[in-house]
Every structure is written in C-alpha cells, then in structure tokens.
Amino acid sequence: MNNLVQNEMMKLLAKKRLIIIGLIVGILVLMFTYAQYKQVEEQREKLGTDDWRAALQQQIIDTQNRLGSNRMLDEWREQLQVSLKQQQYYLDHDINPSEPGAATFTRMFLENAIDLFIPLLIMIVASDMVSSENSQGTIKLLLTRPVERWKILLSKYVTLLLSVSIIVAVTALLSYLLSGIVFGYQGWGAPVITGFELKGADVDVSQVRLVEQWKFLLMDLGLVWLVAVVVGTLSFMLSVLVRSTPAGMGIMLAALISGAILNNMVSSWESAKYFFMVNLKLTAYISGTAPPIEGMTLLSSVITLLVWWALALIVSFTVFTRRDVY
Amino acid sequence: MKQVTLSVRDLKKRIGKREIIKGIDFELNEGEVFGFLGPNGAGKTTTIRMLVGLIKPTSGSIHICGYDVRQDFTKAMKQMGCIVENPELYPFLSGWDNLLHFARMLPDVDETRMDEVVELVGLQARIHDKVKTYSLGMRQRLGIAQAMLNSPKLLILDEPTNGLDPAGIREMRQFIRKLAEEEGMSVLVSSHLLGEIQQLCDRVAIIKGGEIIKTDTVESLLSTQERIFWRVEPIQKGAEILSSFTEITLDQKYIITAYDELKTPEWNAALNQAGVRVHEMNRKLPGLEELFLQVTGGGAGIE
Amino acid sequence: MFLSKPKVLAITIASAFIGLFFLFCLGWAIMDHYGKGTSDKEVIEETAIKKNDFPDDFTVVAIGDSLTRGTGDETGKGYVGLVIEDLKSEYNRKPIIHNLGINGQVSKELVQQVRQPEVKRQIQAADVILVTIGGNDLFQKGRTLLEYDREAITVSQKSFLGNLHEIFKDINKVNDTATILLLGLYNPFIDLDEDFDTNRIVRDWNNETAEVVALYENAIFVPTFDLFQLSVNEYLYSDKFHPNKKGYRLIADRVAPLIKWEDVER
User: Fold this and answer.
1) Same domain, residue pair C215 and C187
2) Interface ipTM
3) What architecture does CATH give domain B4-217?
4) If you placed Cys at C242, which of B122, C12, C56, C72 could pair as Cys (CB 3.0 to 4.6 Å)?
5) How far is B197 from chain C (nearest CA, A)?
6) Which residues of A touch C42 (CB under 8 A)?
C-alpha cells in the first residue's frame, strides 16, 4: 500500500499540478491583498482617520441606512440585521473584527474561499485522478498488475487526501506570507468572537466568547479541510464514473456554481439544504453569519456533507472494482 | 510434456444481448509463440482483455500457470506480463520512473532487475529521459521492459508491431523469438497481419466473429492455403492442362492453383511438354482476406 | 525504504501529518462550537470609553436624520459634506468627519444613539457637533400636517423637547467644550398650504427648540426656515421633502462660517 501511495504521489508531483495551484493561490492572494489595502486607504481618505472604531461605526450607520430602505428583500434584511447586531457587539466590546495583520487577512481569505475557491483548486487535482489514467490508457497497465483493484483505487484516494491537505496548508501559508508583506505578520493573539447563535433575525449572545485568533484560524482550517475533502471525494467519484477529465470537471463546476447561486436564493426552498453545495460555508457558523436556509446548523451541515462523502466513496469503489476496461 | 502456461476454456462474453465472444478454447505451452490472427473487430482485443483481467468474462475459465484469473487474480498476474494495444506509459515521468512505478506494484523486484530489463531492451542511454521525448519504437521497448519486470512465464502482446517502422518490426520479431527460445517464455501475440504472424509464431488461431475458426501450426495452415500464380501462353491451353491436375481459378491473365511442393514441378513439366510457355510462376501467400474467404468457405467476408 | 524517491517520500509523510492535524482541527472546531470547547468562556464586559487617539485633529461629528445623511443630494454629500469641503478649502487641512446620520431617525432614537459607547467616544473627541433632528418627529412623513391634529403635534413637540434636553445633556457629559450646531426645520409644505397653518406650526416648533438650545451655552440654533421660505420648490428634491443639491448648498453656506477652527481651544 505504501508503495502504491508513493507511486501516485510521484505521478502527482511530476504533473506539477500542485505548483500550478500554488501559483494561482499566490496571484489571487496578491490581488486580494492589494484590494484590501486600497479599501483601507479609501476609508482613511473618507473619514480622515484610520481609527477602526470610527470605520466600524460608519459601517453600522451604513447598514442601518440600508435597512431603512423599503425595497429590500426580507431575507436580505434579516441577514443585514444579524450582521448589524454583530458589528454593534464588536464595537460595544471594543474588539476589532478586522484587526490589521496577516493573520486576520488569512482568516478572512479562508472564510471567503471555503465555498468556491478552495473547492475549485481541489477539483484541479481530484477530477483527473482516475480519468487521466483512462484517457492516457495507462489504466490497462495499472490493472494488470498483481494488485487488487480496490487497493489501487484506495491508494489514489489516500493520495487525494494527502494532496487536499497540502493544498489547504499551502493556501493558508501563502496567504499569510504574502499578505504579511503589506499588513505585517502580526495578529495571532487578536481576540475573535465566536458562539453567536442565530434564531431567525435574532442573535443570541449568551454563548458568545472570545477566542484568540490563532485558535480561530485553526478551527477555520479544520472546517475548510473537511469541505475540501468532501468536494475532492465527489470530484474523485466523477473521475471514476466519467472517462473524460473535462466532463467531470464541468459537472463539478456546475454543481459548485449552482451552489453559490442557490445560497443567495434558496431561503424559501427548504429541502435544498440536503444539497452538498449549499452546505459548504461551514466557517459561517463559527463566525456567526446567517446560513442560507433557516434551521441549518454546523452539525446538520457536517452530517449532510459526510453523507455525500460516504455515498461518493461507495459509488467510486463499487464501480471501479466491477467495471470492464475497454 | 511441456508445461501449459495458459489455458482458456469455453470463454464467452456477452454485452447486453450481443454475444461478442462465442466460446473460445485454446492452450499455450511453455516456450511457444502463439498467434492470434483476425481482422479488426473479430474479438481479439476483447479476448486478450479478458485474459489479463481487464474485462470479466460472462462464462468460461482462464488459467495462467494453473491460477484462475478470476479467483486468484494476483497470483495469476504475477506469472504474466502484457502490453495491451499501445504501450501507454506516463509521458511526464522518465523511463526509469515508469519502471519504478510498475516495479513497486510487483513483489520481489529490485533495482538490479530493473537494470537488467533496461539492458535487455537496450534503453540504457535514454532511460532517465522523459517518456514524452521517446520515439514510438523506444516506447514499445520500454513497454516490453515493464512487462518483463516480473520475469513472467507468459507474455501477452497485443499488436506489438503496430506503428513500428520495418526495422523496428524486424527487431521486435527477433526479440520475441529470443524470449521464447532462450528464456522458455510463452508468448501470445495478436495481429491482423498475416505476414507478421507467419514469421513469428509456432501456432496460430484464426478468430472471426468471436469464434476461433481454426487453430493450427503455421506451416500446415499456410501450405494448404498457399497459391501459385501462373502466367502462361497460350492461356487457354495452359488452363486446360492445369485443370486436369487440380482446381484452377482464372484471374485476368493469371491462372491460380494451389501450391504443392511435390506436384508443382510435374505440372510445370506437363505445360512445357504441351508447348505452353511459362513466363512466370509466382508463389504467393494468400492475403488475410483471401485466407478468410477460403477458411470460412467464402461469402462471410471481413467485417 | 524499498524503491523510494526521498523527495516523494518526504512530501508524502509531511502531507500525512498535515492531514491528521487538520482532522484534529476539524474535531476541535465542532466540539468548540457545541460548547465543550477549550476556548475561554469569559463574560466580556462592556469596556470604558476609549481615549481619542487623535486629540489634535479637528473633528466634526454629525448626528441626526436624513438631512445629515444627505438624502436628496445626488452627489451624496449633503450639507455635512459641503461644510467639510468649505473647511478644507479655507484652512487647507482636512478635518476628521464622523457622519452618523440615519435616515428617518427621530429624537427618541437619537437619544439612544448618543448613549452608545462608540458614539460617545466620537463625541468626546469632537470639536464641532452638527445636529439635524425633529423633522421626522414633526412631519412623520407628512401625516401630521395633513391631519392638522393640533393635539398630536403638541404631544410630539413636548416629547421632542424632552429628548433634546437628554441629547444635549448626554453630549455635555462627555464633551462640554464642543460647539453644538442644531439646525432648525424648514417647511417643505409651504406651497401646498394656503392658510399658512403649517408655517405657524413649524415656526412655533423652531421657537421652542431655540429656547431649549439657549439653555446650553456651547449650543447654537441655526435657522433654515427663511432659506426655503420664498422659493421652496427650487431647493427641494423630487420627493418634495428633502433638500436638493442647491438646498444643501444654502444650508452649508449658513453653517460653515459658524465653524472656526482656531477658536477651538482643546
């Protein structure tokens, strides 16, 4: 088994996919860093100060004014109210929600990347794990060795898990290192609030507590990793089922993007919460943002994802071990 | 009695309602080169893929060195090396890494063995280059090298000379004969080219429409099927004389008869005596198409 | 290790550890979220008002309703923005500006707003405080004036004046040196009304307001009634309620000269 995993790892590294992924992340992080930097600068220009409290107060006032507009959809109003209450909470307790520094940037980058960007990166690796062997024809060599088929697929899956871990780690590391050039490498100990409980538009603050940012960041990473593993496993299944890599990628891409769209409009379609792509924004639960459908919790989302994960694995292994290879 | 390395019994494959392999039986002995001859679409590739475990047969059994391919997959595969269709290797890895990749999937293969097979196929100079820089012939050789890694008793080669230039074909042929004669390996070769099979194989199975039509040694198969093309003048008289000895067919200015090593000089003498001038006596192998028409009694044609 | 490439092996092992670590983080995140966590469950206390970080800068805080916000001015500046521009060009320095205006805010809500710690902190740092309030108390989107309910107006006027006291007191509690400029109301309905009833109501409202303002020595009442009296339609936005760009310009021209940078002793 160890040998098989090393084989897959060797192929993965030789394909240089990970380097490409690293480059993509690097470029994106630089872009976001610049955007963030511009935003800070503009705010300073507007307020005449870079006092975060003034900026946050201004955000609250802006939100309040938006809430005053009567052309707003109800569910958006609810989400705005939730974020308004949180902003006020941060302000009242003198905690900077966006403490400057690379650690904060990394946290925010991960939180925004969890439902689309990271899954896309994972897809690059996962979706041709099996189908590339098919299209190159090397599957014939692979399956005529004295090794059972399930072992070959398992070695590929283990390699997928390993590369998912690498990708998540590299994303976090790069966004920390690159954004630090501009924002400085501090912010590990900054307090972050967690434990907001949402009941409709109400925010229950009884469970609210402070966490040091590094702890929060690690929790975020754990959740990002789970999402990456689940999305990776689903792409992996498609890679087994669909012989062409682009077709598999296309299907997965359509699912992810439809998830991003659904997130904005499903609040009245309750059974949509069983779709995996609506459940990807796990970090929103610990940072306290309203979920797309009322009643969704961290646990329900994790369980939904795990069910999809298990089904994808079962399908992958069943099909792969039984299929005739032409 | 030589050991039987491959034995196939009543092998059938059905896809949906269509039976594409309709019961195949044959055996391969140690040190024998066995040809699998048939036109494209006859079921050669499907049969070979069943032998190597890529496709599950609907019924029937395959034993490699006594191990059932379905029940004892890993044991059976340990005795076998194969190239199915083109030798598709990883183009982004070096030749050596490709070998390493497959060596890791076998028990008891170490770097010494890897060096051996590289030397066997003569790739020492380029083994650390990426496979995508290889010519087709080099890839073919690397493919053989990986198939030889586990010192198999049975080597299965699907269309091994496909895409090679004449020199490469000759090289491959010599190589395969060497393996059979010196290492005592059984080799199963499939091809749609009669000439190739003729020069390479000890025994041949002709497969068509999912069935083995005939299994025989190359000599006997060919001798019954070889033809002589006569160009004689006057052609009418020549035809009369020859038809008194044997069956003839007329093809434009040629008279075609069967080839018989003993009788042919007599026929020739007879022609001479009758004053028929023999311009040309051409011994020809039948084309696969003709062979087929003959073996299957005509009318069946090639799909 | 048998047939290994050191680099591949190293990456394999490293990524295996990273993967396990992330798995651990995942477990931790879920446990923590459901309250069995390791993070500190301290009750966070309301913090005291922070000291202003830039005491030397000239700071303007604008509070109040949609007029402070600048509703009706398509450039979005409102009179606050225009005043700041004037100050900038006059003194060649840019003041810090906190615009806390909220559309539709009534005096009762403003009382709440000035009690928020951050707002208090900003007020504490302020050199000038601009206030527009009362418009929504009186007009209530035009209802009061159409109904001519004198009694209702008296009630809301009374509560407004009470709230105004609260606001001034609260401001002075944290900052008694800043100049407070309270803008009076204008009458947007002046053209719709033949009996000049609304004029009388607004004038009366302004008078009472000015009386309250007079009680606080650092506060100034800035009338706007006269600015809009003669050609109200020229200065109103299409909603016939908020000023347009020109209207805001008028207000700003009246407010800006009252602000003297050098006068402020801080």
Assistant:
1) yes
2) 0.83
3) 3-Layer(aba) Sandwich (3.40)
4) C72
5) 38
6) 209-210
How many domains is chain C partitioned into structurally? 2
State both tokens at A131.
Answer: 């189908």
Indicate the angle between helix axes A149-183 and A117-126, nearest 10 degrees.
140
Chains in touch with C (≥3 Cβ pairs < 8 A): A, B
Question: What's the pLDDT score for residue B206?
Answer: 85
Which CATH code fits B227-284?
3.30.70
Q: Encode pLDDT of A151-186 as tens digits.
A: 999 999 999 999 999 999 999 999 999 998 888 888
Domain identity same for C66 and C118 = yes
pTM beyond 0.95: the answer is no
- The partner residues of B94 in beta bridges, in order of sequence, read B130
* Nearest chain B Cα distance for residue C15, angstroms: 20
> What size, in residues, is chain A?
326
| Spatial separation of the C-alpha atoms in residues A121 and A22, rounded to whole Å | 9
Shared-domain flag, residues C161 and C210:
yes
Which residues lie closer than 8 Å to A303 by C-beta, 6 or more apart? Answer: none
pLDDT at A207: 72
Q: Please give the pLDDT value at position A151.
A: 93
Q: Does the pLDDT at position C199 exceed 50? A: yes
Q: Where are the beta strands (DSSP E) in C21-127?
A: 59-64, 96-99
A141–B102 C-beta distance less than 8 A? yes
A-interface mutation test, from C1, C91, C98, most A Cβ less than 10 A away: C98
In tens, the pLDDT along C51-62 reads 444 456 788 899
User: Chain C residue with minimal CA distance to A287?
Assistant: C33
pLDDT of A159: 94
Q: How far is it, in rounded angstroms, from Cα B218 to Cα B220?
A: 6
Query: How many angstroms separate the Cα of A138 from the Cα of each of B70, B78, B89, B104, B292?
Result: 21, 18, 6, 15, 34
C-alpha to C-alpha distances, A264 to A228, A278, A281, nearest whole angstrom = 21, 10, 12
Q: Does any CB of chain A come closer than 8 Å to the CB of residue C34?
A: yes
In a domain, C54, yes or no: no
- Same domain for C134 and C38: no
Of A138, A140, A325, the CB nearest to B90: A138
Same-domain check for residues C253 and C193: yes
Inter-chain residue contact C5 with B100, CB threshold 8 Å? yes
What does the pLDDT average to over B127-156? 88
Residue C173, domain extent: 59-258
Question: The CATH number of the domain where C123 resides is what?
Answer: 3.40.50.1110
C11 shares its domain with C91: no
Chain C residues lying within 8 Å of A69, measured CB to CB: 103
